[in-house]
C-alpha cells in the first residue's frame, strides 16, 4: 500500500469528490446523495429513477449522474478561517508520511532545523533569536543543535591548543 493512501488528502484539491450512490431498493433504482447547498446545512437527497426490470444499469447510472449534478456535494466554508495549530500539525505529518520519512515530522522539527542550519552557516545566536521571535536567548540556544563538525571547527579556531595542533600539522 502506498504512503499516499495512509496519509489522506493534504489539500482541499486532493479530496475525493463524492458522487452520491446508485442503489437498488425494492426492485427500483434509487439515487442518493447529500446536498450541502449554501454550506450551512446538509440535506439528504433521494430520488427513485425507475424499476430495475425496465431500466438498464447504464441508463440508471446516467440518470443518477444528471440527478446529482444539480447539487453541491462538497462542503465549502464561506469564511476563510486561519489554519489552526492542529491543522498545520496534521498537514506536516501527512507530508512526512507521503515522503516516506521514518521519523515523525512536526512543525517544531522545521523550527529546530531552521535554527540549526542558520547557526551552522555562521549566524549568531542573537540573529537567530530575532528571526525566531524568542525573548530569551536561552530559548534560542535550546533550539540550536551543535554538530560535531561545528564543535571541532570552533575548538580549532578559538582554543590555544587547537591552533597549536593546526600549526604542528603544517
Quote the distance from N terminus to C terminus. 57 Å
Write the H/E string, N to C: HEEEHHHHHHH
Helix content: 40-55%
User: What is the rounded Rg?
Assistant: 29 Å
Global outline: rod-shaped
Integer average pLDDT:
76
Arrangement of strands in the largest sheet: 1-2-3
**Low-confidence residue ranges:** 1-6
Largest sheet properties:
3 strands, antiparallel
Provide the β-strand percentage band.
5-15%
What would you call the structural class? Answer: alpha+beta
DSSP summary, beta strand count: 3
Give me the oligomer status.
single chain
Number of helices: 8
SSE topology sketch:
Blueprint: H1 3-7, E1 21-25, E2 28-35, E3 43-51, H2 57-69, H3 85-98, H4 107-120, H5 125-132, H6 137-143, H7 148-158, H8 160-169
Antiparallel strand pairs: 1-2, 2-3
Helix pairs in contact: 5-6, 7-8
